[in-house]
Amino acid sequence: MDMNRRRMLALAVAAASMPVIAACGGDTRQQKQAAAPVKTGIQTIDPNRPGNDTWPFEEAEKLYNSLQWPKSDVADPAAKVTITIASTSDVIAEVRNMQFDYFFKKRHPNIEIKRETSTFDGFLTKYMAQAAGGSLPDVMYNHYSWTQNFISNNIVAPLEDFIARSPDFARDDLPKAGLAYFERGGKLYGLPTDMAPKLLFFNKDIFDKAGLKYPDETWTFEKMIETAKKLKSGSGATKIFGFSPTPKPAPDLSTVFLMPYGGRFLSPDETQVQINSPEAVKTLGMWLDLLLKDGVTPSLAEELLLEKVDPWKSGHAAMHINGAWIMTELAKQKAFKWGATHVPKGPQGRFSPAVGSALVITEASQQKEAAWLYIYEYLSSSGYQFRRISAPARQSAWLPNAEALGIPAETAELVKEILADYATSDGVLRLPATKKAVDTAKPIWERAMLGKIDVKAALDEIAAKVGPLLAENKIA
Fold first, then answer.
1. Of the candidates 46, 110, 187, 281, which lies 20 to 30 Å from 311 by C-alpha distance?
2. Which keywords are on file for this protein (predicted)?
3. Is the pLDDT of residue 66 over 90?
């Protein structure tokens, strides 16, 4: 076990880092007597009546009481216990989590909840150091790219026994593709906190001005690129890009851009580099031409110039591929009218990555039953609806959440269709060398984006330098 812990620390520090889709936060430990108000980063919150302008307590109480909470044959503890939950945090989720914990405590009075919050960037290093020292919380946030490493090193506990004792679990309500990150040997080790595919988003105002039809499910990548060339206009601060951003090495590069043409960044088992295959060279060459010859996508200089003014979000890009989780932000903005449709297809078909994060129960936890009762309710359909998650893993929560967040119902239905039809975890990098592979490949590709090296030479260099790093991915 000591050797595993040392190996785990070394591997985990190298695990992939990606933006969090949805974060959890807030210290909500309840007290028998009135406690002093706590600071959350938004405003002072009363722990005995948590709420703020964004999440009024009365609204939260009414919603919580209106929802049907799942039942389990896993018994509540007979005496007081405390479970520690380690999560990433943002100031908005913080208050809602305080409210959820407040009402959960009323349903389960013997379960005290202690929260530990960390930024996403420092989370993995912090808790893998704790793992190396033999000390971990009961429940822990887990990015999809970390879990297989955790399973291999006996850090997380399988959930099958608890699922079997929870008749309302409704496994069919969770996308199968999105569960693959958290499964091993037929067992599930994590419950998704969120799950969403990527879509093709488009700026209706730019299309309307050009008199062009909106993208739809018939579109191929060739059609998208052809249209992007037509929609490019202007220069400098007023420039309109046909598509943004230029594709770069990323954990889901294969799924979104390469697999439609038969290419991959890494092999399916992530032990060999395939980004310099003829299929990948041809595909990425097409995008490089779109940048260097046609000026349709932002250059590195333009990306730097627009670092704080994203071309898509600011209305300066006609099309953009991103996760369904951005719809909440889009629904609130007034800068332009937008639409969404299926990602384009290539000769080998259409692929969209289903990605998300999870909560896991640590193997070392002495309160696994109480921890299960918490994550079972928190990540139930009612839990998602209470927390107004924009990309709920449970499909039954998509439509009510979309309505509450102002997301068009047809777009929510589109997301559900994609998750059921062609969303996949295939090609999405999730093993320990992911971050090193991406960080090594990116500056080489950026030299190609600057025209300093041709596409074949760049991809050959990536293959040569990334290949040795993949030894880390040969885990049991």
1. 281
2. Signal, Sugar transport, Transport
3. yes
